[in-house]
Amino acid sequence: MDKLIIIKVGGNIIDDEQKLSSFLTSFASVEGKKILVHGGGKLATKMAAQLGVEQQMIDGRRITDAETLKIVTMVYAGYINKNIVAQLQARGCNAIGLCGADGNVIQSHKRVHPTIDYGFVGDVDSINTSLLKSLLDQDVNVVMAPITHNKEGLLLNTNADTIAQEIAQAMSGLYSVQLIYSFEKSGVLLNAEDDSTVIPGINPESYKELKEKNVIFAGMIPKLDNAFTALKKGVSKVVIGKAEELQALITGKAGTTIQE
Amino acid sequence: MDKLIIIKVGGNIIDDEQKLSSFLTSFASVEGKKILVHGGGKLATKMAAQLGVEQQMIDGRRITDAETLKIVTMVYAGYINKNIVAQLQARGCNAIGLCGADGNVIQSHKRVHPTIDYGFVGDVDSINTSLLKSLLDQDVNVVMAPITHNKEGLLLNTNADTIAQEIAQAMSGLYSVQLIYSFEKSGVLLNAEDDSTVIPGINPESYKELKEKNVIFAGMIPKLDNAFTALKKGVSKVVIGKAEELQALITGKAGTTIQE
Question: Which structural domains are found in chain A, ordered by start?
């Protein structure tokens, strides 16, 4: 099977022109088929403030009212997505920017929750792997904005980490998939304050141990749980690490590699 | 050759939720391969006002400074484009929304003008017909936002009429192309104030005559000149008419048909 690398890039890179530019140079030079999934929360928050739209957050998740949905659609699927694509084209990396509605790439449903109304937030139902494969097979790399749709005309705001995971799982039948979560830290850390305490590798046994010893930063637990789910669903390898070290993350020379 | 219908829809439809919805129902039911090109000037103007960005116009063309480019990228390629795609998906019409940077579909250069600096405005250089053909051949209809790129990392604002014309011309080698400009009037009118005075057909001879008699509204002259250029470059038929009559425009039962 061909290799496919799916890379989620975090907000701290998107928000910083210099860091984004250098990350995209690095992404463009990654060989083979690849999909980039981006968020961009801070730019949306800034735009909301400029437009006087108040933002509500619950458990680090944005409550997406109608005005906020409009803003994230503009900022994620418009401004950020198209600027990333244009910059990749300038680096000789042919790319196409999509949201989940495009070609019905990611269908979702509006989140149902017993107590919290998250608003226009979508939980993923299905991925159109054949369109993604057709684009990748034409050497067109895909840049995904974290907006999905319910196929009934509604756009929905969807967590970018989840989108990366769902695409990785769905594409595993067609490619040998490596999933990379790049963010501001060097990987999963033993000491959240000390970037030199990266755990190079985690497997189910060591994960159990680390959790029992209570040494993993609470915020990392859902990411790791998702990583193990992805592995169970056919993804070959998940790496968590610093966006600035993308090439080293891919080769396993940096970051935390999660494997079964 | 397969037929391809390229439809430009004007701002008055985009700005009106009800009209847009009914137009999209009509578009979704058009048989065969199709490309929709949209503008959306008024929504961008409204967003600029909300953000306190002053808009400059020269000869009906927006001067696109850096802030305005950001706004049109968000509004055209984000908000409008993705909402159109989601609504088409809801109507069972598989569609993908692109700007010119996506898959390098439309490459342009920043306009050079001896006296006016239009800012970030792009004049079209080339169309990537093979990606468009590959999508259409997978029964994915294309929705184009009027944003292009210079392949050096710059997004550029480009007139939607021009984009429709350039795509129509470029695709003429691969399909029998019909180009439809849909707007608020019923067609080319003998009396600009009277929608019942549609000229059903114009050819080069009658066009010469109409111009000599000075009966065509000045604003229509560039549209008609462009239509004749498109015909010379291989487009089979150009129709100008009311968006609400889309099906009738396609069959030639409404609007003005321009043919050689």
Answer: 3-185 (3.40.1160.10)
